C-alpha cells in the first residue's frame, strides 16, 4: 500500500500545497511548528476519515476559511485510487475516484496506516479505555465484522442502561425484556471476546520479537487480554447479569461487559503501567505499532503505511539505530524530525528528505 502524493487546500497552516512521496522512507524535516505533524495528520485523516488529534473539524480548517480539502493518490490492492476528503465546520465529505462515498465503512480500507505519535505513550500509562480504544480501532480496520459486533453491543448496552432507569422507577424486577437484551448482549460479546483474544495473542507474539530487536537486550515484553469473565460461556454470562442485577439497578448502569476490559502490558513479567521507564514505554509502544504492521499484512495481504511522528529525538542512539535497522523499503514510512544531523545510518542517507519550512508552505 502506498500514498503517491498529497494535495492540501486550507488544511491547518497549508494554504495550497502539493507533495510527491517516495515509496520507501520519507523524512519530513523542519523546525518546530512548521507543519510536519500536519502532514502526518492529513495522511491519517485520508485513511480513517478522522484525526488522531481532534474530533473538531474546525481546528483542521485553516484560520479564517470555512473548508479544507485533503486529496491523495493511493496505490492499494494493485490499483491506483484518488481519495478525497472535504471538511466543513459541520461535516466531512469523502470521495473515492471522484464518486461520493456515503458510508465511512465503504471508505475505510483503501488506505491503511499505522501511526505513532508522542501521545501514544498513554497506551502504557493511560487508563484501560485508552487500550480498549486502540484494540477496537485496529481490529475494526482489519475486521469489518468486528466493527459491526462492537456497534451492535454499544447499541444494546445503551438500551440496557436506559431500561434499567425505567425499571428503577417501576417495580425493579429482572424481567423478560431485560433477559432478551441480555441474551443478545451475551451472544455478541462472545464474538467480540474471541476476536480480541486472538488479536492480542497474535500481537503479543510479534511484539516480543520487535521489542528485543529495538532494545537489544533480554527484556521480555508480552501482552495479556484481561477479559471480564473467566469462563467464556453463554450460561455463565447470563447468570452473571442476573446475579448483578440489583447492583446494576442501584447504579443505573451495567457493571460487567466488554466495555470494561483491558490489555495488560508486561515487561519482564511486571506491569509496564507501574514500572516501565519513559524510554521503555516509548520502546514498548513503538514495538506494538511495528508488530501491528505484520499482523495487518497477514490479514489484508498488504503492508499498511507507517507514520512516525517525532520518534527519533527521544530515543537513545542505540535504540534509534535499531529502529532504523528494522525500517526498510518494503513499508512506506513517514518520519518527522527537527534534524537528522549526526545520524549516520544508511536508511537516513537513502531516504527522501522533504524540508518543511514556512517558505515552502504555500
Ligand atoms: N487551523 C489552523 N490554521 C492555521 N494554522 C494552524 C492551524 N492549526 C495549526 N496551525 C499551525 O500549524 C503549526 C503547527 O504545525 P505542526 O503541529 O505540524 O508542527 P510541527 O512541524 O510538527 O512542529 P513540532 O516540531 O513543534 O512538533 C503551528 O504554527 C500552528 O499555529
Automatic annotation (TrEMBL):
GO cellular component, one term: cytoplasm
Binding site for ATP: 30-37
Ranges of residues in domain RecF/RecN/SMC N-terminal: 3-340
Domain of life: Bacteria
Gene3D superfamilies xrefs: P-loop containing nucleotide triphosphate hydrolases, RecF/RecN/SMC, N-terminal domain
GO molecular function: ATP binding; single-stranded DNA binding
GO biological process entries: DNA replication; DNA synthesis involved in DNA repair; double-strand break repair; SOS response
Function: The RecF protein is involved in DNA metabolism; it is required for DNA replication and normal SOS inducibility. RecF binds preferentially to single-stranded, linear DNA. It also seems to bind ATP.
Family: Belongs to the RecF family.
Full protein name: DNA replication and repair protein RecF
Native source organism of the sequence: Faecalibacillus faecis
Lineage: Bacteria, Bacillati, Bacillota, Erysipelotrichia, Erysipelotrichales
Gene: recF
Amino acid at each position: 500500500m502506498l500514498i503517491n502524493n498529497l494535495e492540501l487546500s486550507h488544511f491547518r497552516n497549508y494554504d495550497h500545497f502539493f507533495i510527491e512521496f517516495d515509496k520507501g522512507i520519507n523524512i519530513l524535516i523542519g523546525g518546530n511548528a512548521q507543519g510536519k505533524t500536519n502532514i502526518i495528520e492529513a495522511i491519517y485523516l485520508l485513511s480513517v476519515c478522522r484525526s488522531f488529534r481532534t474530533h473538531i473539524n474546525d481546528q483542521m480548517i485553516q484560520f479564517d476559511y470555512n473548508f479544507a480539502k485533503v486529496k491523495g493518490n493511493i496505490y492499494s490492492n494493485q490499483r491506483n485510487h484518488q481519495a478525497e476528503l472535504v471538511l466543513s465546520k459541520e461535516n466531512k465529505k469523502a470521495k473515492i475516484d471522484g464518486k461520493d462515498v456515503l458510508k465511512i465503512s465503504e471508505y475505510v480500507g483503501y488506505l491503511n496506516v499505522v501511526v505513532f505519535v508522542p501521545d501514544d505513550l498513554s497506551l502504557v500509562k493511560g487508563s484501560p479505555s485508552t487500550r480498549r480504544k486502540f484494540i477496537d480501532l485496529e481490529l475494526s480496520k482489519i475486521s469489518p465484522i468486528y466493527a459491526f459486533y462492537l456497534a451492535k453491543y454499544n447499541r444494546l448496552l445503551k438500551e440496557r442502561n436506559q431500561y434499567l432507569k425505567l425499571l428503577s422507577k417501576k417495580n425493579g424486577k429482572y424481567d423478560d425484556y431485560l433477559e432478551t437484551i441480555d441474551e443478545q448482549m451475551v451472544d455478541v460479546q462472545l464474538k467480540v471476546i474471541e476476536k480480541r483474544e486472538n488479536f492480542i495473542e497474535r500481537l503479543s507474539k510479534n511484539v516480543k520479537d520487535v521489542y528485543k530487536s529495538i532494545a537489544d537486550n533480554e527484556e521480555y515484553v508480552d501482552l495479556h487480554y484481561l477479559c471480564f469473565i473467566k469462563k467464556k460461556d453463554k450460561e455463565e454470562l447470563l447468570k452473571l447479569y442476573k446475579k448483578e442485577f440489583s447492583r446494576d439497578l442501584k447504579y443505573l448502569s451495567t457493571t460487567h461487559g466488554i466495555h470494561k476490559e483491558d490489555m495488560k502490558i508486561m515487561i519482564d513479567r511486571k506491569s509496564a503501567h507501574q514500572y516501565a521507564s519513559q524510554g521503555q514505554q516509548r520502546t514498548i509502544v513503538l514495538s506494538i505499532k511495528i508488530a501491528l504492521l505484520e499482523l495487518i499484512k497477514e490479514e489484508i495481504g498488504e503492508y499498511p503505511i507507517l507514520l512516525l511522528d517525532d520518534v527519533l529525538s527521544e530515543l537513545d542512539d542505540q535504540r534509534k539505530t535499531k529502529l532504523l535497522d528494522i525500517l526498510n523499503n518494503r513499508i512506506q514510512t513517514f518520519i518527522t524530525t527537527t534534524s537528522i544531523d549526526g545520524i549516520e545510518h544508511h536508511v537516513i542517507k537513502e531516504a527522501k528528505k522533504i524540508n518543511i519550512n514556512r517558505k515552502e508552505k504555500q
